[in-house]
Amino acid sequence: MNTPLPRPRSSAHTHSSPSRPPASSTVPPATTAPAQGATVGSSEWLSGAIIEGHYQVGSLIGRGGMSEVYYALDLWSNNPVALKILSPSLAQDAANRQKFHREERSMRQVGGGHTVGVISSGTEYVAGQMVMYIVLEYVHGCTLSQLLRTRRALSLGEALEVLLPVVDALSEVHANRYLHGDIKPGNILLDANGQVKLTDFGLSRRDDQVDSGAPMGTPAYVAPEVLDPQVKVGAQADIFALGVMMYRMLAGRLPFVGLENDQQVLYHNANIEMPPLGDIASGIDRDVAGIIAWCTRKQPQARPEDATELFASLKEVAESLGESELSWRAPSVPEPTSSLWEAVAEIAERSGAGQMVRNTPISAFSDAGDLLAYDVYSPDSLLTGSREEVHLADVDAEDSVLNP
Fold it and tell me: Hey, which of 41, 124, 229, 336 has its CA 20 to 30 A from 67?
């Protein structure tokens, strides 16, 4: 496969607005310099720059293994967007640029609905630094990971309300012959208005594409076959991750707890049968527990073929449940004082998202490294109850990836 050259900015996919300049206008490159005195790679180095002539960059809100995400304001529509860039330290490597381009391409292929939509993308130079970027729709809310730090576990009805859109989105991914590659709570976005979005396609690839590199993913959610170089990894690896995530959402813990490092987690995923969900969370609907057991079988061919098959089964079970079954919650988890979406809105406000979006100009944005949308490191202050009641590593094992 040829390595893509840095591409010129594109406005072909940018939303139109009544205040948008005529189509014949020349869109200038980023003309505003980064924050004065900020070094490339610092949390402020890109703040203040203007991309494509109308996306004004605010503060860094998340940083992962390969990318950084900033708040930005579309000056034409006055709407917030999320600007995802390839980390400057990695942008000089052609293989990294290719991976970032692949993420953008896969997101465009399946974007919309219950996946975060791509607005625009391209490459520009800011103060002599190449910036490869993707402009994404902004989600005002929190990640499922953040929500699970405040509630530990969801009721069955709440879990299905989140899971059905996620599995529906993944069905579209698989129908287009892509693998997501990193299904986990930190990559599920919950909008305060009740929308659920699947995001972060940084590890996605075509299902007919051989991944010759080292295995990648978040250990707690990595399927056994991902670790075997002799096995072709397919959609069932995403299904396994979904099963682990469902287990986490309903039990309030991961299947294997008390493990000391990633290697132990991977070994258990590959070799040790997971404790039945019913043993950990008594009273769970048997059909739901059966679906989770189906998704997390060791052999990929023993799981649902893809998310489309899983969605049909999950939807059938959901429609058969009565009010009492849907209200079930793990006995070890306290009853919440607010609804699911009220909790999402509260997290967004407490993390500073609401105040940040309301601030103008965008340069007034404060630092929001604990914030939201693409950041899996939610602040421990959001955790309710005594920390001695639960070991965080057993419920939020998202801060480690294979081959980061």
Answer: 229
Rounded distance, CA 224 to CA 87, Å? 30
pLDDT digits (tens, 9 = 90+) for 176-201: 888 888 899 988 999 888 989 888 76
Task: State the pLDDT at residue 387.
Answer: 38
Element (H, E) at 169: helix 156-175
Residue appearing with tokens 């987690």: 265
Give the per-residue pLDDT at 39.
58
List the structure tokens of 192. 């305060």
Q: Which of 74, 168, 182, 306 is catalytic?
A: 182
Q: How far apart are CA 137 and CA 81, in angstroms?
A: 5
pLDDT tens for 59-79 read 887 776 778 888 899 999 998
Phi and psi based region of residue 283 (left: phi greater than 0; alpha: psi -120 to 50; beta: remaining): left
Residues paired with 200 in a beta bridge: none
For residue 159, which of 276, 286, 290, 314 has the smallest C-alpha distance? 314
- Cross-strand partners of 81: 72, 137
User: Facing residues of 55 across strands?
Assistant: 51, 74
Going by C-alpha positions, the residue among 46, 43, 20 that lies closest to residue 33 is 46
Per-residue model confidence as pLDDT tens digits over 264-277:
899 999 999 999 99
**Known catalytic residue at 287:** no
In this prediction, residue 351 carries a pLDDT of 65
Beta strands in 127-232 (DSSP E): 129-137, 141-143, 178-179, 188-191, 196-198, 205-206
How far is 62 from 380, CA to CA, in rounded Å?
A: 16
